[in-house]
């Protein structure tokens, strides 16, 4: 793993992470009807912090492998959609519209995971928890839309 | 240039571009005091569309050059900060706080431009208009903070 590249990828994650601080959950989210399996609020920053470290390490490992340009391009897509989702969901509170960046995020994370596995076993493995978490987040976004038909602003 | 990579990088730009549609300028921005040299509103989507095409083409060219991992990592940083800036400025209307992602964007675009020039002349050249535009955007963000001390929400 190239440590300089790790820090650069971590800087990209910093932009995504900032959305969590800038667009907090607040009373609107607290008042939504949620499925039983909704993770508690404290878990989100903890999980995301771990995922940002792992996805940066995965990219820094993959980058040292020849022919990694496809995987690194997909990594760029996932970090952009990751940064987009929070302002749409918690900023605009457009839960339905947020399903679009969520779909983009899920697809790009899944594609990055697959391509990283072809480049480097550890890079692929470090993306698996991210894919699991984004799957949970996508299911949660969808459940919140269904359980709160009147809470979403028109999208 | 690898056309498949171009489309993948363009998808990342799509997330950034979506912020322009989701967080429009609106009456708040229209009412701000602006410097004489503020570009007219119609110019922003036209310029951004051109810049997204160029920065995707630049990445797709650079990616085919050996040793491009540093440049591609920096590209990821700039697209994440690009996606972050609009929701902070036009969504939260936190003009001062928006200077932080703007600084991250300017630095990452400048670094990507320099590194792309070492990889491929055209990739570097295609980032120059982006660096110029982000410099103008940064100067505009700073001027708006100064000219409208009361319009920014506390940050």
Please summarize what this structure is.
The structure is a homodimer of 155-residue chains. Chain A is built from six helices and no strands. The first copy, chain A, is mostly helical and 155 residues long.
* Secondary structure tally, helices of chain A: 6
The SSE string of chain A, one letter per element, is HHHHHH
Biggest interface, chains and residues, is: A-B, 42 and 43 residues
What's the overall geometry of chain A? elongated
| Terminal residue distance of chain A | 43 Å
Contiguous runs where pLDDT drops below 50 for at least 5 residues of chain A: none
Question: Would you give an account of this structure?
Answer:
Two copies of one chain form a homodimer. In chain A, 42% of the residues are buried. The first copy, chain A, is mainly alpha-helical and 155 residues long. The model of chain A has no long low-confidence stretch (mean pLDDT 95). Chain A contains six helices and no strands. Helices cover 75% and strands 0% of the residues of chain A. Chains A and B meet through helix 1, helix 4 and helix 5 of A and helix 1, helix 4 and helix 5 of B.
What is the element layout, followed by pairings?
2 copies of one chain form a homodimer.
Chain A: H1 3-22, H2 26-30, H3 43-62, H4 69-91, H5 99-119, H6 121-147
What labels would you give this structure?
mainly alpha; 155 residues
């Amino acid at each position: 793993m190239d440590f300089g590249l790790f820090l650069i990828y971590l800087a990209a994650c910093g932009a995504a992470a900032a959305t969590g601080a800038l667009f907090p959950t607040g009373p609107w989210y607290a008042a939504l009807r949620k499925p039983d399996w909704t993770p508690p609020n404290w878990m989100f920053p903890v999980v995301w912090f771990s995922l940002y470290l792992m996805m940066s390490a995965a990219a820094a490992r993959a980058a040292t492998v020849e022919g990694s340009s496809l995987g690194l391009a997909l990594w760029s897509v996932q970090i952009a959609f990751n940064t987009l989702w929070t302002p749409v969901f918690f900023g605009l509170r457009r839960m339905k519209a947020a399903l679009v960046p969520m779909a983009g995020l899920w697809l790009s994370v899944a594609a990055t995971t697959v391509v990283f596995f072809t480049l480097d076993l550890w890079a692929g493995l470090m993306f698996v928890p991210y894919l699991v978490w984004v799957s949970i987040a996508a299911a949660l976004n969808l459940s919140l839309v269904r359980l709160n038909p009147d809470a979403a602003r028109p999208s």
